[in-house]
Write a structure and sequence with these properties.
mainly alpha, MetI-like fold, 2 domains
Length: 330
């Protein structure tokens, strides 16, 4: 049968009633929905761009303030005296000393102690979680391990001062002072342990299972497979976790303020005695009576800029190591 058009005329067979001759009127398409979607997408794009711009501008603002105040400081104090001086005593009224090396050595001492404690322990924990732990054990142990990252750092500081020093270090090393770098370094190591273990474990689990199966098929034991096949294959991720942990240790503040003391260390610091890191100096000076605009006040920005340069260098090294040792699997 012939189909009837909208105007009662018979349409030709095989031709839709909507497609008519020149005298017919085709229905209009509603484009308002498409326009609204395009407007929403543009609005979302603008909002996301503004969020990214806020982060970028905040970083630029922080760096700008540090550089501006640090330049004012270096106009008064020679950069050579600052970066190569071995005495730090800016509070002295007569002949103050602005050599930052004692603060740098104090910071690096804490970071090295923390790394010596946490890197092997964190890597072994990651190997166990990724290669040996049953799914049920891993589901329990990993959240418990990551819970350490949620403890406030000042709690770690008092833990080092009231437990690690009197109950662990002083019975073994009686010459250990109440405030000392060793206890602070151990506490910082405990704090960054979840970062090393979790990131390294994720890197180990990303290694394809086929490599493990091939190693076992060739007669390797589980330990040999883990240490000689899986760990080298995940080396870029492991290195990245190490560098990030070192950056976190270098920037730690409250643990060092509470447990390490406030006396600038010698060029070769004593781990059993007091020392002062760059972060702890900034905190103690801000809480003191350094008048705004004075040389002592501007030392905060010079030290902060030095600390920023150190952490930036560590991040650059991390990116280079990741790119250098990264393995891509099909």
């Amino acid at each position: 049968m012939k189909e009837e058009s909208l105007f009662g005329q018979a349409a030709a067979p095989g031709v839709s009633p909507m497609v008519m001759g020149a005298g017919s009127v085709a229905p209009k398409l509603d484009l308002s929905g498409a326009r609204n979607r395009n407007l929403s997408e543009r609005l979302i794009g603008v909002v996301l761009f503004l969020c990214g711009a806020v982060s970028l501008l905040t970083t630029v603002g922080i760096i700008g303030v540090l550089i501006f105040e640090a330049v004012e400081f270096f106009l008064e104090i020679s950069p050579l005296d600052f970066f190569f001086g071995t005495e730090w005593a800016p509070q002295i009224n007569q002949n103050p000393q602005y050599g930052v090396i004692p603060l740098i050595t104090g910071t690096l001492t804490i970071a090295i102690i923390a790394m010596l404690f946490t890197l092997p322990l964190g890597l072994m924990s990651a190997i166990y979680l990724a290669e040996y732990a049953a799914p049920r054990a891993r589901a329990i142990l990993k959240p418990v391990l990551e819970l350490l990252a949620g403890i406030p750092t000042i709690v770690y500081g008092y833990f080092a001062l009231t437990f690690i020093t009197p109950n662990v270090l002083q019975p073994i090393l009686p010459e250990t002072e109440v405030f000392n770098a060793l206890a602070a370094g151990i506490a910082v190591g405990i704090m960054i342990l979840p970062m090393v273990a979790s990131l390294s474990e994720d890197a180990l689990r990303s290694v394809p299972r086929a490599l493990r199966e091939a190693s076992v098929a060739l007669g390797a034991t589980k330990l040999e497979t883990s240490t000689r096949i899986v760990v080298p294959a995940a080396l870029s991720g492991i290195f990245a976790s190490f560098i990030l942990a070192i950056s976190r240790a270098v920037g730690e503040t409250m643990i060092i303020v509470v447990a390490a003391g406030s006396r600038p260390a010698d060029v070769i610091p004593n781990p059993l005695g007091q020392l002062q890191a760059m972060t702890s100096y900034i905190v103690l000076t801000l809480s003191g009576d350094a008048p705004r605009g004075t040389t002592e006040y501007r030392t905060l920005f010079a030290v902060g800029l030095t600390l920023f340069a150190m952490t930036l260098l560590l991040n650059i090294v991390s990116q280079w190591l990741v790119a250098r040792y990264r393995e891509v699997y099909q």
